[in-house]
């Protein structure tokens, strides 16, 4: 199955559902303007309860995501996806404090005892699984550097 030719029975099909991974096209890939109408419209949907964890400000990859330890949709979110969405919120002007909120408030309870961000948190923001992802930690460092500089840092070369 590919996004352009879905052959599964999922609703909505992969080529029709919002996916927080797409926000990486803005940061760090730098190929889509975070203020574009489509990106702003998509990130605005990320506040829909079906796309967020119930008890914490963390967006899932997409509504009813079943890439979980149980293989079924579970309430919860992906901290790195929330970081990507927050850069879009920040850069598009939808929420100028989104990145600061992520760094100083939202990500704090999601961390492990070793102060690392997991791949996934449950609906209450507790660590769910895969806590030693170096790319997730690297993205967090770039996010903090972006906050300090007041502009996105770690972008791919210009479009």
Automatic annotation (TrEMBL):
This is Glucoamylase. Residues 1-20 are annotated as: Disordered. It comes from the Archaea. GO terms for biological process: carbohydrate metabolic process.
